[in-house]
Structures are given as C-alpha cells and as structure tokens.
Write a structure and sequence with these properties.
It holds the Pfam family PAZ. It contains 1 helix and 5 strands; from the N terminus they run E-E-E-E-H-E. The protein starts with a strand and ends with a strand. The protein is 14% helix and 53% strand.
Amino acid sequence: LRVRSQDADKPIVYEICQLGQSASSQTFQWKQKKKSVTVENYYKEYYSLTLNHPSLPTLQMRNG
C-alpha cells in the first residue's frame, strides 16, 4: 500500500511496510533530548500538537 504526502511543491510517495504500536505506547530514542519518548509525547513537545487518536497504530514506511 502506498500513500502520498505533499512536501512544499513536491509530492512524496511512501510504501507502508507494517503497522506498529499505538502512538501512545510506541517509543523511540529522541537524540536531541537524550531520552526515550512516545510518538504521542514527541508530537506534543516538538510540534505543540495533540494527536486526535493516539490509540491508533503507527505506520512503518519507506520511500516508495
């Protein structure tokens, strides 16, 4: 399955590889802050955005 994202004037196509854990439970190492953080908290801290559906799964994607 492929999805398209608009970046400036150029569309980017990604291929979905697999589903991950929910955004509220999927963690990764945030190198700039030197800490582990959930996807939900990353969006809250970095972008000042609150996810509408943090219980939905994350997507692992690659350029497609």
